[in-house]
UniProtKB/TrEMBL annotation:
GO cellular component assignments: plasma membrane
Annotated membrane topology: Multi-pass membrane protein
Protein known as: C4-dicarboxylate anaerobic carrier
Residues spanning the membrane: 20-43, 55-73, 113-131, 143-161, 173-192, 212-230, 272-290, 296-317
Main location: membrane
InterPro entries per UniProt: C4_dicarb_anaerob_car-like (IPR018385), DASS-Related_Transporters (IPR051679)
Keyword annotations of the record: Cell membrane, Membrane, Transmembrane, Transmembrane helix
Native source organism of the sequence: Macrococcoides canis
Keyword Transmembrane recorded: yes
Pfam families: DcuC (PF03606)
Localization per Swiss-Prot or TrEMBL: Cell membrane
Any coiled-coil regions, as ranges: none
Amino acid sequence: MFGHIPEFSKIRLNSRKAPYIVVGCFCVYIINPFTVGIAQSIAEVPLFSGWGYRTLIYLLVLLTGILYVMHYAKKVKAHPEKSLLYDVNVEERRTMSDDVLDTKFDSFRKRHAVILTILAATIIINVYGIFKYGWFLTQMSANFLIMGIVVGIIGGLGINGTFDALLEGMKDILFGAMIVGFAKAIVVVLTSGKIIDTIVFHMTDFIDHLPAAFSVVAMFLTQLVLNFFIPSGSGQAMTTMPIMVPISDLLGINRQVAVLAFQYGDAISNNIIPTSASLMGLLAVAGIPYNKWLKFVWKISAIWVLICLGGLIVYMYL
């Protein structure tokens, strides 16, 4: 994702639109072993079953996201002063765009082929490690860090230049990392003090007293709120699904609906909550203040919530 920012400047599109354009793709992922896979395993339904219906919802979310961003981009192109970022880091944006546009790119050489090969090998190694050894973010991040150092040296930056580039990149996401760190401290207190268990219990206790249709809505909204306290998708699945599955059985609701309620509630809120490391890191690199991001994303997020709620209710009666 970060790599697309200079590409947007190269085609003379505000690089700050990069997060806007792709953020919906993550919201309703079709297959994800760390969220959908875990939730379905706990619910004891076939792994990745229901992918056809999830694909339909994915396409609806993607289409509305594309139209929303195109409308915003068209408006800003005609009236730049209407951009939410019009008065934010004007000189910095101009300098970065000019630097990217003035860059002279070399023709494809052997070293570029080697770099692409190393990138592909790193991805393959990570995938193998995930399935063979149960690797997660820590191991994958270490591999990508090693890859970054190696390709920097091969690419001609040298040792000093490579580490200077790494430090420059780290500087861009430092603020986002600090925000996530402070938010994580809150989560640690809630978890260590067993407070999160109380929150989950009381948020789910009232669901089994509601009619089926309202219960589905309540499941979704509960997952939406809990994601602030448990930003890890796999962690949220393991915490909430053992509770949601018996409730869905009690109400006669398909377990697949409970899985969808978790998936959509977890994913959509990741575009808003400050405890999401990926969101805050992306905003930091793109230079988007969090308050400006909220002003942009709340409308499309509300649309996505309505789409997902409608999808949940329809699926319940299929």
